[in-house]
Design goal:
single chain, mainly alpha, 22 helices
Amino acid sequence: MFSKLKLLARDTVIYGSSTILARSLNYVLVPLYANQLSTFDNGIQAVVYANIALANVLFSYGLETAYLKVASDAVKRNVDERPYFSTAFISLLCTSTLFAALIALIAPAIAVAVGLEPESGTFIRLAAVILWLDAMLVVPFAELRLKRKAMLFALAKVMGVVGGVVSTFMLILVFRTGLSGVFIGEAIGSVVSLLFIFPVLRNLKPLFSAGMYKELLRIGLPYVPTGIAGLLIHLIDRNLLIRIPQQDIERLYGSGFQASDITGIYGRVAAFGVALQMFIQIFRFAWQPFFLQHADDPEAKPLFRQVMNLSSIAVIVLAVACTFFVPDLVRYHWGGSLYLLPPKYWIGMSILPWIFFSYVFDMVSTNLSAGLLITGNTRYLPVVTFAGAVVTTICCLLLIPVGGMDGAAVAILAGTAVMCLCMWWYANRFFPVSYDWGRLSLLLGAGFVFAILHDELLGAFEGAGLYGWMLFMAKLLIVLCYLSFGTLIFRNEARAAWRRIATRISPIGQRGEGKA
């Protein structure tokens, strides 16, 4: 079992390092947007990008997962998977071209539909170009994952982001393109990625099989409503915040703000959930091929239980650490001249604990989804994600007028929790695994208490005269105490991990003594 966990860990490190590097480079743009664009423009960008994410699901209509499934099965049967590759790629080329042209044609109407002014139709058209380019990357990237060509995958991802980031900086700082530069830079980055994965297209043949296409659609289409609902859980907040009445804005935040300003502030602050989002995305890249390959192993269920424990513990501890330290990073005056987010954005900082802990439920759901895919019960995924989306939407409608940005963040947490609960119900029905729910719940509950009491703890520390480095050390001590509590709960696993680390270190020490 451990050798298979090592295999998952190795792929995770490769996918993870590239994703972390790519996201980190992309994250450099957040201070650029916050400092160079108005909160109003940031609101437009937040709304359009939220809907780009939703439209990406429609453009790919589940073919990434479908291709991984059918191609993996073909490889196991020693059947050539290239006809599936060609069929999937050609279908995306045709449908994406049609979708992008339609969006460009009715762009002003779409802008109004998402809560913007008709003049924002220009940004909608630029978004259509981005969507088309991203759709062209779907199947080639899936092929790289299937063949475990993680290094090429990583190179294409990272260089695409580098190209996009450099282009965006040049467009905004040098050519003064304003908000348009954000979209043009993103499109340039996608073109760079496409150039790097061009060798994968050697598998492309002038072949389109209607039978294969039907098989791909049968597997992939259930992921469309599932994907949309899953994204709505994290993106419906922007689409509803942009519609918050002016009187509610003035009651909650005073005068001088419009709905687009509030949405822009919320989007920039919520972006700091990137640390946990990256962790889950890294895990997901390696996890899906991993559980498909090992689903029939005799030790599959104990293996999946260990993966659930390790991944959940990591993301819970990360959520607690981010709750305590991310606000300090945001408020720090770097070099005496730059804030990651200027002070006008700080009114949204209270949403961070809710955002961070929503990703804990995302991680658990990601683990549980293996049971539905392994058993072929993907038809239940829309039920799971729509339940979460409905709860998120209802909570947003109820809580945004009352709590503004905080209401939206609480709604996201509620939606992800409900989705996780529904995922457990179906996974336990079709692929029961004896997970350590009691211990994981105890660890999560303790972490959530720490996060909720964050402001009170800071107030107590400052009241005791702790500032600067002393305050930092006090918060670090709290996080370490929580980590110790987690080690105590999972003490058997901690001992086993320590013994394995000690075993690996000992031979190194012995070799060093022998050379001496």
